[in-house]
Design goal:
It is a single chain. With 475 residues, the protein is an alpha+beta fold. The strands form seven sheets. A six-stranded mixed sheet has the order 11-12-13-19-20-23, with helices on both faces. Strands 4, 16, 17, 21 and 22 form a five-stranded antiparallel sheet that branches. A hairpin with a 6-residue loop joins strand 16 and strand 17. The protein starts with a strand and ends in a 15-residue tail after the last helix.
Amino acid sequence: MARAGASGRRRIESALRALFAVALLLVAGGCASRLPAAAPYTHGQISIEGMRSDLNYLVARVNADEAHFSGARRAAFVQRAKRLSASLDHPMSHRRFFVGIARLIASIGGGHNTAELTYQVVGKVKAVLPLELRVIEGRVYVKNMLDGTAIPRGAELLAVNGVPVAQILRTLERYTSYDVRSAHQAQTAELMPWFIPLVYGWQGPFHVQYLPYGATAPAHVTVNGATIREVKQWNHQRDSQGQAPWSFSLLADGRVGYMDFRAMEGNVAAYHRFLHAMFAKLQAKRVTALIVDLRQNGGGDSQFGDALLSYIAVRPWLDASSMRLELWQGGPRVTVPGWAMWSRPNTSPLHYRGHVIFLVGPGTFSSAVMLAAPVKDYHLGTLIGEETGGAPTDVGEVKTLTLPASGIVVALATKRFVGPDPYIDGTHGVLPDFVVEDTPADLATIKDEPLSFAIRYALHSSAAPSARVPPERSR
């Protein structure tokens, strides 16, 4: 069963794919008139009638379909919708109306509920801050940068255009919706280069104040910013576009297996062949430790995670204990009677008895959390890293909705999955057995300390199959 979600980076990649797909259409067609008009614009702005029509349509659909939140969240959504409606007294640019819709959707919470960064949203952005950012202990640091950018890795970002970055982060958190606090900050920082031009209207040059790693005095630099095309090329160089979002290699002179599991999507048959080949190699080479990296896994289809665990678990495990909807129209919470998501180990002779280590962090979200949670609850392996970005009790089954006048696309979750005990409130992620966080020094030296720790732990710990026998649970 799918519990699709999208991390910040996957939302950016989706936007870039849409942007360049449309660009190709324009080149092939020779003119923009071949593309359908998305909205009634007046001199480049959306009319009052169009915006109000979109808002009423969205609120009505949320009332009908977005049934999993109630109480304070529902009140916040209603109040935000009223404020947005009151502000629609003059035509607005697409950017300004998108910002209003993004904040409204973010009030729902849950991480899966978002205003999407489509071509129509980012296509007119002239330049973005060419940085990949990381939050460490509430501060924003540079993890990576476009070639030629003067700000070094590991530098703490202090201010942009005179506004403190801490203030920018707090402001932009209003436009993203993650219930786990650490993930909210992390994903907001990841999206910051894109939301700065949308929310603040800054599209370069950017006057940046930063503190280089190891320095005592801040530095200043003016950055022109990167175009959408430059960011697209940068992502292509880093991510090897077109490859499956999973890969396997041997580390530590062949003594430790490493599965880089970046997303739960792609060709299912190819994925099953990949798993078979990976576990066959582990068995043939007698590799007694496997590291599965979920730190950049924003989720997708949960069957991908179940297929992996089927090679590891020795008894059935519970992914989700129940599924419920919470009705708006004065009705009670509705739990689907008798529903539970159980999965079983496979009977393959390649069933793995070695030590399995999972790397997790704020980028571990949605169905990837449904993989990490039973690992923790059933002692199927060791978790290393940071708290996951999503909670085992979380929403899913996402539907997209296109607002008819503006063409703005929003993603709305329709169901809430209740994870195994003790996760009942949905505000805490899965906690690792060993907390290992990136530091500014790691960013500056391009060191992956969580992975290094996992390799050391794998080499110096014994694989006890009995440690992975899950406790009995009633069915």
